[in-house]
Amino acid sequence: MSEAAERPPRAANGFPTVGLLLAxxxxxSSRSLWPAVAALGRLATALAGFQDRQSRLWFQxxxxxxxxGNFPEVSATCMFAAALAKASRLGLLEGDRWLTSARAxxxxxxxxxLSHGLDGVATLDGTSAIVxxxxxxxxxxx
Length: 142
Description:
Layout: H1 3-6, H2 15-22, H3 34-50, H4 74-89, H5 97-113, E1 114-116, E2 122-124
Antiparallel strand pairs: 1-2
């Protein structure tokens, strides 16, 4: 059994990533914010390694892209891209790679998943109501 198959699946949960920025870490210079900024840096570094180079998206289980049933997940990709872009803009993440990564993800989402109806209303297709690759099958199946 491969190492990836032995690890418990973890969804590409964008909520903690976005949550670190919702606190608007840039508004204070207090040392009390340093742990959150450091956590954001560690998370961004980990995420950068899991952004799929071909699709430019993140998979639902980010660290196991080759796992059976795994797929590029739109909502987490959008949250990661928003968080990386905002953190880059605020100077919380150093270097251009974060904004480049965010822009690539947004472009991929726009190309693959954004559609416009006859009424001109934009729709984000391909989002998942329930994701995961493990556990009991007690959730709705697509």
